[in-house]
Write a structure and sequence with these properties.
The structure is a single chain. The chain is mainly α. The protein has a domain of 77 residues. The chain has four helices and no strands. Helix 1 runs parallel beside helix 3 and helix 3 crosses helix 4. It is elongated, with a radius of gyration of 29 Å. The termini are far apart.
Length: 149
């Protein structure tokens, strides 16, 4: 016969009264992901919006990056905000994703509007170019128009 296992040091004493009332769910700590399917879905969408918003903000100067990441960041952030509001949970990450996504889109639009005419002139110059020397002249004109020398 195997020996009895040692007693649990964290167990209540054998003569202690049973706990009063039903077990209580522990409170969700501040900043933790909300529980429940609606809250968890909103938190995941909010996190995705935040990640895409940060990428949009960081790549907004490339125009394409600002649009590729900014549009989905705004869409996911708004969806996450709606879900979080319906579930009654905080939506700070969703709001941050929307704000950063909009900043990335605005930066991309600003850069595009700033360089669109210059790029169009550069492309026209290259179409008329028949030598590498003329290509270099086109590049110099583009640099001067963008303020690079």
């Amino acid at each position: 016969m195997p020996p009895d296992p040692p007693p649990d040091p964290f167990a209540p004493p054998p003569d202690a009264p049973p706990p009063a009332g039903p077990p209580v769910e522990p409170a969700t700590p501040a900043g933790a992901a909300p529980t429940g399917p609606a809250g968890a879905g909103a938190a995941r969408l909010g996190t995705a919006a935040l990640v895409l918003g940060v990428l949009a903000f960081l790549t907004g100067l490339t125009v394409l990056g600002g649009v590729v990441f900014g549009g989905p960041a705004v869409a996911l952030g708004l969806s996450a905000r709606a879900r979080a509001r319906a579930a009654g949970v905080p939506s700070a990450t969703a709001v941050a994703g929307v704000v950063l996504g909009l900043l990335g889109l605005a930066t991309a639009l600003g850069v595009y509007l700033y360089v669109a005419d210059d790029i169009e002139e550069y492309q026209g110059c290259l179409r008329e170019s028949v030598s590498f020397a003329q290509d270099a002249v086109c590049e110099d004109a583009l640099r001067r128009s963008l303020g690079g020398g």
